[in-house]
Sequence to fold (209 residues):
Amino acid sequence: MIKNVHGNTVDHLGAAIVAGHYAPGASIPPEPLLCEELGVSRTVVREAVKSLIAKGLVSAGPKVGTRVLSEHQWNWFDPDIIAWQAQAGLTPEFLRDLMDLRRVVEPAAMRLAAQRAMPEDIAFVEEAYAGMARAVKEGGDYVTHDLRFHQGLLRASRNRMLMQMSKALGALLHTSFELATKKKDGPARSLPLHRAVLDAVIAHQPAKA
Fold:
């Protein structure tokens, strides 16, 4: 997707912050310098800073300028932040936190899905699984179908908060699945495990799911 001037400015500043070019508590360059460096207007810079504030990357105030916040305050469900972290390099801490989150959320969601899944939920996940199987057999985009599989099961929990979380988790799960597919025969080995989860959901067996 081609980004506009605003998007490119947010990308430039956000990626620099996540990559550690500005330490927590440090100020990013003032507006005139950013305008000159990026070749954009003050309005563009101000709007970009507002976006970074919304993502939890920076704070702004009179006389103190725009300061970088600690990574503990960043919105780790924001797809842009995930993309910038992937670009900068996935740290052991990031990978640990990601796997911790999945271990907490997904087993509980599968248990609920096995109790509450509707026929349309099963049809959606079956379609995603078929796409995964085709990708393993014929090549192609395994990760996108894998993501649809997991998000479909989160929605099948019929829990409004988990369903909303499936949207927020999208970028995190996508990153996780990309890492898994880089392992030798990773998709082929994981396919039967996905089938087993889906079969348990279809059979309404929460503990097995």
User: Anything to note?
Assistant: Strands lie at 58-61, 65-68. The two ends are 37 Å apart (CA to CA). The longest helix spans residues 92-116.
